[in-house]
Amino acid sequence: MKRRIRRIALALSAVIPLAVLVGPFLIPVPPLEGTFPPQALADPDSQFIKINGLTVHVKTMGQGEPVFVLLHGFGASLYSWHAVMEPLSQLGMVIAFDRPAFGLTERPLTWEGQNPYGPEAQVALIVELLNLFGVQHAILIGNSAGGTVAMQVALAHPERVSALILVDPAVYSGGGVPAWLRPLLDTPQMRHLGPLLARQIQVRGSALLDLAWHDSSLLQPEIIELYKKPLQVENWDKALWEFTLASRASDLTERLGEFTLPVLVITGDDDRIVPTSQSIRLSGELPNAQLVVITNAGHVPHEERPTAFMDAVINFLNSLR
Question: Which domain holds residue 224?
Answer without folding.
Answer: 38-319
